[in-house]
Amino acid sequence: MATGKNGRVLIVDDETDVLFALKMLLKTEVKEVATEKNPDNLLSLLARDKFDVILLDMNFKSALNTGNEGLFWLRQILEKDKDATVILITAYGDVELAVRSLKQGAYDFIVKPWHNDKLLETLHNALHAKSDKKAGKQTIVTSQTTILGQSEAIHDILYKIEKIAPTEANVLILGENGTGKELVARALHEKSFRAGKPFVSVDVAALTDTLFESELFGFKKGAFTDAKEDRKGRFEAANGGTLFLDEIGNISPGMQAKLLTVLQNRQVTPLGSNTPIPIDIRLISATNEPIYELASKNQFRKDLIYRINTVELTLPPLRARGNDIELLARHFAAIYAEKNHKPVPDIAPATIEKLKQHSWPGNVRELQHAVERAIILAEGNVLQPQDFSFSAMELAPATQAVPAFAAETNMPLSEIERETIRRVIEKNKGNISKAAKELGLTRTALYRRLNKYDI
């Protein structure tokens, strides 16, 4: 498979200095780096040899000279090989053309002058995506986001993303912690017509009532004691693009009212100002809270729900995704083996069975952390069951690692979550950082749950 050190990369650019700089940068990162100065030789070169990734300049001093030579050569490459992975190299002034290229089949683009770390991250993501594709893994791949899975549950989500992304519909994403709500939000943005505009993410549950307005709507100099200068809010920063409000189910009634007013009027008024500012955003929201149950108890405004969920997506928990657990475990193992300069390990059948039996309260995020720990601590080149340890394994036997868990224990999901958190904190002797990592939560999210469940 073409990951990292095994990758073969072709660089096509008519500037000798660029070819030299990229070859020096990549020569220790991949198996082979080939260069070509004349794009007219590109098709004959591809007929003779196969490359995992092609880095292609967007502008050449050629007879075409139209400013979008990269798009021309991209189409030529994809006509010859529809599965080719092409990353375009562009000047800042051609970013709009580069964004168009994503819709025409490019994997991603980088802007000159590039940052080496960002270029290498983009290249390695492309190589992993290529490897996953060869392995028959079903994915959504955009400029920054890969959603991986073969299960029927995730296939349905991928299909809905493709259908919803090109629209202007506001989207509400529901799902447990760690199921990938922000990944889905980013995929919706990156596959939309707003892809070249900002994607602004806000964890609204982390904002106090006093910070909510200043963070989201902005403020003018002198609006309050620490307002030393004008500052744009997140709504204005996302203008023309997508605003992602995470953990929206946790905001107070006062915040809900202010948010509803902004969404109805399509304008914000910064603190300290009387002048409203029009906004043009696509709103994507997410929560792991039972938002309709909250609405029935008058703890969440029904009129706000109608505003934020033109379309609704419910992400499946990892325990409901069957063989995706093995697929994701192997995917993360390849990533963290490369990151830690180790050979990619195999995973023993008994280990796969253990992973499938775990209830995964932290979902994909928890699996990712578990694999990373196993890669670091494992002795051999095969991950064994003992390389993975979970407190939740003691809590949830095999029959509980399925969606029917709540019904089988006659416990509501809130009680299951409360008991899981209590036991993990007890296991880690009160260390919140360790408990949060084991649960696949941030410290902030865990503190919110401690307060919610009065633990």
TrEMBL record:
It holds the Pfam family HTH_8. GO terms for molecular function: ATP binding; sequence-specific DNA binding. Residues 147-376 form the Sigma-54 factor interaction domain. The modification 4-aspartylphosphate is found at D57. Keywords: ATP-binding, DNA-binding, Nucleotide-binding, Phosphoprotein, Transcription, Transcription regulation. GO terms for biological process: phosphorelay signal transduction system; regulation of DNA-templated transcription. InterPro entries: AAA+_ATPase, AAA_lid_NorR, CheY-like_superfamily, Homeodomain-like_sf, HTH_Fis, P-loop_NTPase, Sig_transdc_resp-reg_receiver, Sigma_54_int. Residues 8-127 form the Response regulatory domain. This is Sigma-54-dependent Fis family transcriptional regulator. It comes from Pontibacter fetidus.
